[in-house]
Amino acid sequence: MLTIKDLDHALILVRDLNDADVAMRRLGFKPTPRGVHSVHMGTANSTVMFGDMTYFELLGVLDPTPANYDMRETLERGDSLFGIALKTDDARATVKELAEVSAADGEAVNFSRPVDMPAGLEEAAFSIANVAAARVLGIKMFACQHHTPDVVWRPGYSDQPNGATGVNAVVGSVPDTDEAGRQMTALFGDRVVCEEGSVTVKLNNASLSFLTPAKMHEAHGIYVDDETALRVLSLKTRSIDVTRKTLRENHVEFTDRARGVVTVPAKSACGAVIEFVAQ
Q1: Residue-level pLDDT at 154
Q2: How far is CA 254 from CA 7, 110, 246, 267, in A?
């Protein structure tokens, strides 16, 4: 996909946004104030923003609508790392590219949410191009066009107290890396690297990886079943010592996986294993 070169953000789907905000503050993040999306979306969010123009989103359902059916179905199993958003400057052009490889899921979707800026309320506006789930291992993936990036990356919210500076990788588990390699290569071409037990999409600013359960344990220290699912949100940190200090002060369980790598279990991070990696 020529219109996509970067990761935009990761989505963590949560049943209760208030509880999610509390959990993320314990981990040393500073979520933005709540935003409510357009009525047809039926959702609301808060975000954890980074200075490298990536972020992750805490996403909850307010009202049932056709647009959030898949989210409601997923939430029946609990909070989880739910989706991957890629950057595009032109969502309609991305839809056309996806259609060429039979991977488009409908037309571009427009929506917005109000944001309380220093000068008053402004609209954060987006267009997204959804990728057909059947062409990406059943995982939620879409391309996001920001019409108002200055409103989304609002002043004062990208300097995270725990030292986190950006998304490093989103990691999923798959039982079959052969199929993962075929599907990712169909979309991302020579940016895909296939090795024993792993498939990695190398974007300009981050990576998407899909690992077998054995490789997931080897690389990230967690045990997973054979279900295809997103598991790990890996974040860069300017100081692993600052990250450790913040987690200790807030009595958050974590594991030192290796020199310069700290892992917080899913039970403490809204269903996502969060990994901090020293830059």
Answers
A1: 87
A2: 26, 39, 11, 11
- Residues 6+ away with beta carbon under 8 Å from 104: 95, 96, 98, 129, 130, 131, 132
Give 232's strand partners: 171, 273
Fold designation for 7-152: 2,3-Dihydroxybiphenyl 1,2-Dioxygenase; domain 1 (3.10.180)
Alpha carbons 150 and 28: distance in angstroms, whole number? 24
Residue found by looking up tokens 């054979």 in the block: 226
| Residues 160-219: tens digit of each pLDDT | 999 999 999 999 999 999 999 999 999 999 999 999 999 999 999 999 999 999 999 999
pTM flag (> 0.70) = yes
Q: Across 181-247, where does the E strand assignment appear?
A: 192-195, 198-202, 207-211, 229-237
Instruction: Give the pLDDT band (50/70/90) at residue 121.
Output: confident
- Domain 164-278, CATH: 3.10.180.10
Question: Is 1 a residue whose pLDDT tops 80?
Answer: no
